[in-house]
Each structure stands twice: as C-alpha cells, then as structure tokens.
Amino acid sequence: MAAFSTSSSRPYHIIIFGASGFTGQFVVEEVARTASEGPKGSLKWAVAGRNRTKLEKVVEQAAGAL
C-alpha cells in the first residue's frame, strides 16, 4: 500500500477533475461557495479538464454566483 503525503506537502486541498462537465460545474460552484465562507486562503482548490476555455468559463460563472 502506498503512503499518502500530508496535506502540507500538496499545493491544493481539492482538485476537481472534469470540472467543465455537467456535474463538475455544480461541484465547482459548491466548492467556491464553501471556500468563500471560510477564512481567506484556508481552502486551496483547483479545476482540471480537457478544455481550458470551458474551465475558465466555469470558474467565471462560479465567481459570478458568489
């Protein structure tokens, strides 16, 4: 069994894969909302997917919904 790194050695707490898909968009909105409610910078998260343009649009929409 592989050992897991501690969270302090990782650049992000959460990476949302498939963020430009239907379900991924909802996850991005929820994570963005949750991250904005906590102390600034306490939750580091990122999005990943096949199409950068779509990912940027999803992040912009999530930011606009806050």
Write a structural description:
This protein has one domain (12-64). By secondary structure, the chain is an alpha+beta fold. It is globular, with a radius of gyration of 13 Å. It is 44% helix and 12% strand. The model has no long low-confidence stretch (mean pLDDT 89). It has a two-stranded parallel sheet. It contains two helices and two strands; from the N terminus they run βαβα. It has helices at residues 22-37, 52-64; strands at residues 14-17, 45-48.
Shape summary: globular
Fraction of residues in β-strands: 5-15%
Count of the separate structural domains = 1
* SS field, number of helical segments: 2
Q: Strand pairing plus helix content: what structural class?
A: alpha+beta
Distance between the termini: 41 Å
Rounded radius of gyration (Å)? 13 Å
Numbering strands along the chain, what is their spatial order in the largest sheet? 1-2
Main sheet summary: 2 strands, parallel
Low-confidence stretches: none
Following the backbone from N to C, one meets helices and strands in this order, namely EHEH
Mean pLDDT: 89
